[in-house]
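note to self — DONT lose this again. spent like an hour looking for the file last time. sequence + predicted structure for the chain T wanted, 169 res
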Amino acid sequence: MISPISTHLAAATAALAIGAGGAWWTQGQRYGLQLEQLRHQQTTAELTSTKQAAHDMAGFQKGLTDALANFQATGQRNAAAQQNLDRSLRELRTATAGMRGDFAGLPERIAGAAQPALAQYASTCTAVLQELADRGGRMAERGADIARAADGHAADAALMRNAWPKASR
């Protein structure tokens, strides 16, 4: 026969085993919940930083697009200004050529109409004016080259300045 102490001891051992198993399982569930909460926090932080990166990238892309549009508009304005400058330069060359033609016949007209000293003076004035016209034409061409280079530099500088990311405040 089995003694009552053995029965109580067996029941206590069984209760202890069931209680320890339950405590083990409950503690495992708590740790599992804590791990899931930590994973959720990490995922939320990563999602937040990804959203911020996407927002920053969209702002950068908009800035770049705006800068490119501004660059293209500036390029078109510069092209129109260059055409106007080229047209003015052609008009200056035409006027200079016309002045050369006018100056070429001037000494003969003055020589026939007045004394020889006046003719010499007119020839000298004509030579000086021709030299001034030639230098003016060369100077205008050099100015056009400088203006072209300056326009290109200004457009490049504006593109870089406008494409630089703006800090959001």
